[in-house]
Specification:
458 residues; six-stranded parallel beta sheet; 18 helices; 14 strands; 13% strand; binds uridine-5'-diphosphate-xylopyranose
Length: 458
Amino acid sequence: MKLAVIGCGYVGLVSGACLAEAGHEVIATDNDASKIAALQAGEIPIYEPNLDTVIETVVREGRLQFTANGGEAVRDSDVVFICVGTPPTDSGDADLSAIDSVARMIAQESKSSKLVIEKSTVPAQTGEQLKRALQVYATNPGAKFCVASNPEFLREGTAVKDFFHPDRIVIGVEDEESERQLREIYAPILAGRFRCPVHEPNCPPATTPDFVVTTINSAELIKHASNSFLGLKISYANVLADLCERLGGNVDEVTRAVGLDPRIGGQFLKAGLGFGGFCLPKDIQAFIKLADRAGVDFGLLKEVERVNKQRVDLLLDKLKKALWVMKGKKIGVLGIAFKPNTDDIRLAPAIEVIRRLLAEGCIVRATDPEAMARARTVFPDLAYSADPYEVSLGADALLVLTEWEQFRRLDWKRVRHEMARPLLIDGRNMLRPEEMKALGFEYISFGRPDKPPAEHAR
Ligand code: UDX
């Protein structure tokens, strides 16, 4: 089947490349001609493990092409995936202008019938608007449009693995033919008919993911509801951490035991600096707005947001309390990306922390294995170093803001000796308090008291 992917951002690139690996012919386009030129030259604009291998293979084998000509991509395909961005507006709503202009382009360029699939995260009822726009702007009487929703649950850093090994595939459709086409598109993924770059030579045995067929409105809601629930779990764990600090509990022990209940689950209960990135914060905001407009009070999610925003304040309070005077202090920052294995710094808590440190007159030096180039666009004058030991040199405090594996494995004894004062604030609860204290650090994290956790919690 010939597929067009409109929007070569994160979701578009990963989906397009993986669907090509699964045997489809894919033509991907973007209105940023320089991005397409870079992709045509073999450059991948994002850091994502395994994506380069998949793209390189499918391009070489002729199953994935890039074009700056959106009309060509649409005309040459049976199915069009819309993967454009839906960033927040000033009010927090999702900005759907890119979806609108793509709909117009598809309508005007199509000479034959198409299945148009929203993959971008959109508020419920966008499918209805999309369908209307396609009908209104259609110029060719031979072009009939079906609309479907196929939300993506990819996590940055493991997106290729997530695409090939999903927990579930959700499709929102309104007719049998659209369902049939989507089943055909995903059949190779469900049957394991692709060369998986993550697991070589063979993928581990796994149960076949659920293929969930719903209405379009439900599919749109499922995406917002999933991301919001993940944020809710994290904020819950973070409030538990605050409570543990006051009452002398250990949040690692508490969340581990709470998460052992399969009705709750152990993932996304890691306390610390809170969630960032371009999905969770913006989707929660958009979901709250959507609920407000629908006349439903989603105060629960407003609290999730409030708790999350407070995490940066709490980290800085801990730092201020320990340092007393902030002005002129040398602060080393380990980690800028919103989470490990990505170079994405959008809505990363570390960016806000650095901004506030600079405003307090601190002298900041930062490192990140992948995100320094992007950080330079936000803080061009900040001191950066690829070497974490250099970042520790002469520092009055060191802050762990992203839990990269490289940081976990540092020679912490050496780090301690490089520092002017061995004050270590672990915003990600990445290190073991007892080990850091034994090395002579003044170690501060979230919700973990001085006493080592019981053996079973390790
Ligand atoms: C998220 C969803 O997980 C994914 O399904 C959706 O398609 C896109 O949004 P992503 O933005 O890549 O993916 O990041 P995710 O792995 O969900 O992490 C989000 C943030 O939460 C990160 O800042 C991470 O550090 C933080 N986090 C995660 C915690 O603070 N605690 C946790 O227990 C888990």
